[in-house]
Hints:
This protein is an all-alpha fold. It is built from four helices and no strands. It has a single domain (8-109), classed as Up-down Bundle (Four Helix Bundle (Hemerythrin (Met), subunit A)). The chain has helices at residues 8-46, 50-67, 70-84, 88-114. The two termini are 18 Å apart.
Amino acid sequence: MNEVNADPDVLERLRVVGGPRLVRELIELFMRYAPERITIAKAGIEQGDLGATQRALHSLKSSAGQLGVTAIQEGSSRGESLAANGDAAGAEAALAEIEALWPATREWLTEQVRL
């Protein structure tokens, strides 16, 4: 575990299977689309469309899990569940946690691309 609560072993397994290029491409895709998914999830809450929030967080959860970014994966899972149960305030709180984790997570992933 590290300051972003990520599992570097997940990326190492991906490197073994697909090489560093695969890891770099997956990280680049995640870093490109994660902010968009967060924005869509927030917009869903603001517009009263918790289904959109749930779908965006589900996608973020899956992508984070593929890279071993467990803190964002867990926050997304929690937010997805809360949105599915109609708890907009809870989903919004989970999103705030995810947003707080994002800068350190982005930095960690950037470092992983260099390995």
